[in-house]
Amino acid sequence: MIKTLNELKTGEEGTLVSYQGGDVELRRHLLGMGFVKGATIKLEKVAPLGDPLELKVKGYAVCLRKEEAKFIKVEV
Amino acid sequence: MANLKIGLAGNPNVGKTTLFNNLTGLNQHVGNWPGKTVEKAEGHYNYNNNRVDVIDLPGNYALSAHSIEEIVSRDFIVDEDSDVIVNIIDASNLERNLYLTVQMMELGANLVVALNMNKFAQDKGYTIDAKKLSDLLGVPVVEIEANSKIGKDQLLKTIEEAAKNPVNTVNRLSYGPELFDHLNELQTAIEEDKNLGDVPSRWIAIKLLEDDEIILDRIEDSSKRNNILNTTEKVKKHFKDIYNESSEEVIANARYAYIEGLLKEVLTKPATEKKTLTDKIDSIVTNRLLGFPIFLIIMYLMFQITFTVAAPFQDMIDEGFGILGEMVAAALGDGMLTSFIVDGIIGGVGGVLVFLPQIILLFLIISFLEDSGYLARAAFVMDKVMHSLVGLHGKAFIPMILGFGCGIPGIMATRTMENEKDRLITMLIVPFMSCTARMPVYLLLVGAFFAAADQTNVIFSLYVLGIVVAIIVAFILRKTLFDDMDAPFVMELPDYKLPTLRGILMHTAEKSWGFVRKAGTIILAAAIIVWILSSFPAGVEYGSQESAIGMIGTAVAPVFAPLGFGSWQPAVALIFGLVAKEVVVGTFSSLFGVAEEGAGIAAAMHGIFTPLTAYVFMVFVLLYIPCFAALGTIKQETGGWKWPLIMSVTTLITAYVVAFIVYMVGLALGFG
To answer: Could you tell me if A11 lies within 8 Å of chain B, comparing CB atoms?
Structure first.
C-alpha cells in the first residue's frame, strides 16, 4: 500500500517510492540526507505537540514537519 | 619538508570540532570565511618538525551549491592549495557519512578517512573492516576516538604520508556502466575547453546533471558552451526516458548504490538493531507526555542557574568597580579628569563587565546542551509552538527564553540556528522579552504609583505585553523585510553523547572573550559620548538641564508629549537608558537631586507622571531601542551596522505606537 510519510503510524516503516512536489531546495537537501528511491524510512515518533515527525532513515534520526513529509510517498 | 595545510571535513555531529580541538589545542583562532557569515576555525600543530595548518570546514551532508556552508567547503577543496582533506566519519552511521566522502572523491580530493566513534559502533553491534574499506575506497582509513589519544599518532603519521603521496580519488568511483558511459560522453565535451581543467571533468559533468548554479555560470563563459550544454540536455533527457527520474536523483541513487556495495563487504550489522542508549533516553526526553514538561524544567533550570548563580558574582564586579571608582576619585580629587575616568570609563566598562558572569554560565550550559545533543530535542519539542505562533524554527525558543534574563546572551544564542532569516528575526525580537535590567525601572515606578496589591500584576502585564509585541513584530517582519517563506525544518537528531570538558570550556572562553572585547569597545565609546554630553558646556552640573544632554532632553521632550510625559527629565532618562536600561533609575535620582534612591524620587516624580503615564513610560522603556551592549552584540553577530540600525528604527516605532495606543486606551477607560 502506498502512503505519504505523514500518514505512517508510529513505528511503521516503508520504502520510498516517490518524492514529488514541495520545495525544490528541500528536496535536494533531503536527497543528500538519504531520502532516495528504495530507502527504508521509519516513523520513529511524533513530537509531543503533534508536529514535527522523527524519522529513521539510513540508520540515523532526522525530523521533518508534516507539511513537508506529505510530498514523500512510501510503500508499506 | 615544507609546511602542510589540511582541511577537516565531515557531516555535522560526527566529532569534527572535537578532533579539531584535539589536534590544535590552544593554537587556534576563530574568524569568518572571507566575505561570508560562516564561521571559520583555523589552527595548527607541529609534527616531525613540520607545521601543519588545520582548517575546520563547515559540517555538511553534501557539496551542492545550495548553501553557503557547502559552497565554502567545496571551494576550499577546489581552490585552496590544501595537501590533505581529513574526512571524519561516524562509524555508527557509515552509509550517510560516506555520501559526503563520495562527493569529495568526485572532486579528486586527497583524502584521509578518520573513522570516529568506533566504540559506539561496536556497542551497537557493528563490525567494520577498516582495512577493506581503505582498499575499496583507495584512501587511507584510520580508526580514531576524537575525544581521546586513541588513533591520534596513527592519524598524524597517515596525514604526513598522504601529503607526500597524493592520490587522485576520482578514478576510484564506479557508478555503474550506464551512468559511466554518459558521464564520459559529457566529460569529452567538457575536456575540449582546457580552461575547465582545474577540476576533474567528471565532477563538472556530475554537477551539470545536478543543475548546479555555480558550475552552470562557469559554463556560460566557456568557449565550448553550446556543445557542453547540448550534451547535458541530451543526457538528462535520456535519464528521464529510461529511469523516469531527474538526473539529480539518478546521481544520488548511483552514489548510494556505490556505498551500499562497499558496505556489503565492509560492515556487518546484527540481525536486529539493538536499542541504543539514545533510544532509551529519547523514550523519556521526547516522550509524548513527558517531552514538554522536561523541556520546561530544563529551560527553567538554565534560566535559574544563569541568573541566580551569576548574581553574587555580578554584585562583586559591580562593587569592585564602585570601589575602584572611589579609589580613583580619592586619589585624583574632584575634577573633570576624575569625572571622566569614574563616570565615563569605569562606569561604562563596569556596566558591560557585570554581564560577564551570566554570559560565562550561559555558554557553559548551552555548550553542554548543544554538545550532548539535547538542544536538537528541545527544538523538536518546541517547533510546533514556535512555528504556529511566530513562524520560526523550534530552536528560536531558547534565545527568547534567555532574553528574559538578558538580551545579550539571547542574541548570541541565535548562533545555534542555521537558517539566516530565522536567525535574524529571532535576534530582532529577543529584546522585546523583558530583561532583568528593566526590572529596577518597573520597581521604581510601580512603587511610586501603584498600590502594593496591584504592583505584581502591573509588572506581569509588561512581561506579557513584551511577548505579544514580539509575536506581532515577528509577523510584520516576515511580511515586509523578509520574504514570507517558511524555512523547512530538517534537523538531524544526533546520538546523545557526553560532551568533553575541554570542548565546553574552549567554546565558553572563546565566546565570553568575544563579548568582552567587542561589546566592550562599543559600550565604552557610548559611555564616553554620554559623559561628554552630560559634562559640557563647561561648568554645568553633571546631567542637569543646562548640560548638552539636558538641552537635548528639553528639545526631544515635546515628542513624548502625546504619550503623556512631556517633561525633559523622562526624555533624558530615556536617552541615558540607551546605555543600559537600569540607568534610567540612576538618572532619575541624579536629575531630582536625590542621592538616595527611594521615597525621595517617588515624591518628586508625582509632578511628572500620573499612574497612567508612569505605565506608558514603562511600556516605552520595555519596547524602545535595546541597550548599546545589545546593539553592539547584534553588530558583532551580523557583521555590520545594517541590522542594529534596522533594529533601532523598528523598536523606536514599535515603542512609540504601542505606548500611544496604551495611553489612548487608558484615557478612554478613564484612567489618568
So the answer is: no
- Cβ pair A50:B387 closer than 8 A: no
Please tell me if residue B288 touches chain A, with a CB cutoff of 8 Å. yes
With 0-12 CB in 10 A as exposed, 13-18 as middle and 19+ as buried, what is B279? middle
ipTM given for this complex = 0.94
Domain boundaries, chain B: 3-171, 177-268, 292-483+505-668
pLDDT of residue B319: 87
* Chain A residues touching B492 at Cβ < 8 A: 33, 60-62
Question: Do strands B28-32 and B84-90 pair parallel, antiparallel, or not at all (unpaired)?
Answer: unpaired
Tens digit of pLDDT for each residue in B454-492? Answer: 888 888 899 889 988 998 998 888 888 776 666 678 888
User: Cβ–Cβ of B384/A58 closer than 8 Å?
Assistant: no
pLDDT of B229: 94
Distances in Å between the Cα of B82 and the Cα atoms of A31, B284, B438 are 29, 45, 51
Any chain A CB within 8 A of the CB of B95? yes
Integer Cα distance of B561 and B610 in angstroms:
13
State the best of A36, A40, A43, A51 to mutate against chain B, taking most chain B CBs within 10 Å: A36
Quick one: CATH architecture of B177-268? Orthogonal Bundle (1.10)
CB pairs under 8 A between A and B: 104
| Best CA proximity match to B621, nearest among B567, B566, B582 | B582
- Which among B256, B290, B298, B497 is the top mutation candidate for probing chain A, defined by the most A β-carbons within 10 Å of its own β-carbon? B256
- pLDDT tens column, B394-422: 888 878 877 877 788 788 878 777 778 88
Domain boundaries along the sequence of chain A: 2-75
Confidence check: pLDDT of B598 > 70: no
Give the global pTM: 0.79
> What is residue A2's predicted lDDT score, i.e. its pLDDT?
92
Cβ of A68 within 8 Å of Cβ of B489? The answer is yes
Identify the sign of the CA torsion A29, A33, A38, A39: negative
pLDDT digit string, tens, across residues B531-573:
788 888 877 777 777 888 888 889 999 999 999 988 888 998 8
B56 phi, psi to nearest 5 deg = -85, 110
pLDDT given for residue B519 in this prediction: 56
Which B-chain residues 54-73 have CB contacts (< 8 A) with chain A?
61-62, 64, 66
Tell me which CATH code domain A2-75 carries: 2.30.30.90
- A47:B383 CB<8 A: yes
Nearest one of B312, B315, B307 to B359, comparing CA atoms? B307
Pick B3-171's CATH classification: 1.10.10.10, 3.40.50.620, 3.50.30.60, 3.40.50.300: 3.40.50.300
Residue B493, min C-alpha distance to chain A (Å): 5
Instruction: Report the alpha-carbon distance of residue B210 to residue B271 in Å, rounded.
Output: 36
